[in-house]
Amino acid sequence: MTKLSDIVKNWTPAQWDALVAQFLPADFLTDAFWRGRPGPCPICGDGHDRFTYDNKRGRGDWVCRKCNAGSPKAGDGIELVCRSTGMSYVELLNCLTGKSSMPTALHAAVPIRQPGTKPLDTSAKMRRIEKQWAAASSLSHGDAATQYLAARVPGLCAPRPVALRLASQDYWHEGELIGRYPTIVAQFTLPDGRMATVHRTSLDPQQPAKACIVSSDGEVLPPKRNDVSALPLDGGAVRLMPPRDGELGVAEGLENGFAAYMLFGVPTWPCLNRVLLSKFVVPPGLGIHTVHIFADFDQIDPRTGVSPGMADALKLAKRLRAEGFKTVMHRPKIRGTDFCDEWRTVYELRQMSRQAVAA
């Protein structure tokens, strides 16, 4: 099967430039863009100087200071085209090989945009993520998702999460179908109630664990990933369970959200990562007055001298207090751990205690 990597492996830097030029909106393709000067990002769409196209390795190379949920993100021209237009690798591959309605280029297999075609706009991206959400099913006892969560958070007993669903999804990488996996689909919701994206966790089909996904050339691929973001993600979270008595918790990861609930009984929403945690906005109209912040107790970064997870959690606490909310900061007892680790230890000690009493 033809792969994107096979098609582009002998391309010159000029051909990568041509690929980018044919697919990115003309508004971004300024003289400053081609000179490698900072400008607005064609992927996240925000900022006036966060994105740089430098083609430094001759593969359409770029970097954005905010594209990784508020952190830096870099990639090649293929990722730039796919992420900025919403095209899948398969759709781009079909363009390059002439299998789609968009004609292939006359020179060096660089695609020429068909007149009238445009990158996916916000409404098209929204339709795409809504389609994924609609195709997934509610969680049920004993399915692959609940088994995985119970393995990561032993003894889990929590309200059924309406923001999580289960699907069977193909995993594509650069035009190659790696496999089909049970997939947890998490609805990421903004403070105003709109869905901004869906976060997907690919699971092992045989055991309750994240899938180990390896491409044909040996690259280990991430089992967790977002689909296209129809809207900026700042302020949002995965609403696992409703707030209780005006109190709500926030954490980084999905599993940490459930672990925090088991440890403290506080309904908790995952924000997916520490940067988005720091940007969380309390939704209006839910009567929330107290926010519990469950921080990852990361090791100290030797370059900055701070614990990244703690620093972003403290940043959130400071802002929320200034906005009039009561905040309660929680961190695990041992550095280098999160609340999933802490809950597992607590659970195992409780089991050992019960066994000792029974004996």
Question: Which regions have little confidence, pLDDT < 50, spanning 5+ residues?
Answer: 101-119
Q: What oligomeric state is this?
A: single chain
- Put simply, the count of helices is 11
Helical/strand content category: alpha+beta
Overall number of domains: 3
Q: Shape from CA axes?
A: globular
Looking at the overall shape, the CATH architecture of the largest domain is 3-Layer(aba) Sandwich
Give the tally of β-strands.
15
Report the mean per-residue pLDDT as an integer. Answer: 85
Radius of gyration (CA) equals: 22 Å
CATH class of the largest domain: Alpha Beta
CATH topology of the largest domain: Dna Topoisomerase Vi A Subunit, Chain: A, domain 2
Order of helices and strands: HHHEEEHHHEHEEEEEEEEHEHEHEH
Q: Could you characterize what this model shows?
A:
Residues 36-78 form the DNA primase/helicase Gp4 N-terminal Bacteriophage T7-like domain. With 359 residues, the protein is of the alpha+beta class. It is built from 11 helices and 15 strands. It has 3 domains: 4-119; 121-232, no CATH class; 234-359, Dna Topoisomerase Vi A Subunit, Chain: A, domain 2 (3-Layer(aba) Sandwich). The longest helix has 20 residues, at 339-358.
